[in-house]
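Morning, I've got a small favour to ask if you have a moment. I owe you a coffee for this, so here goes:
>
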Amino acid sequence: MEPTAISFSRRDIWAGYHSDSGKKPFINLDACMELWMAVLSNGFDATISAAAGEDAALLAELRAVFIESLERQVDLLSRARCDGNWAVAAQRLKSLGASFNAPTLVALADLALDSAPGDPTVIRKLSQFAGEIPAS
C-alpha cells in the first residue's frame, strides 16, 4: 500500500520531524495551498467525495441523504409559524450545512434565524439553494 497523508498518525509525523537526525521532512507548501483552496472553493463536493472515497454508490447515497434532509427541513421551515418551530428548523439546517461543509447553507440558516417566522424571502432562497444541488 502506498503511504498517503491519511495513513500517517500524528505520532509518526511528530517522531519524524523531531528526530535527532537533523534532517527535517520537506513540506510542499504549494501543494498544501492548492489542496486547501480546492477544499475552500468547493467544500460540499470535497467533503462528500472524501467521505465516500472511490465508492460511487456511497457518494450518490450521501448526496441523496443531504438533499432529502435539506428538502425536509426547508419544508418544516416553510410550515413553521411560531418562533420555536422556526428556530428549530433553522438550527437543523445550519447543522446540516456545517456537517456537510456547505457554507452557503450555513449562511442561509443564519439568515433564517435572524428573520421572522414565515419570511418568504428566506424560504425562497433556501428552496433555490436546494434546487441548485445536482442529484448525482
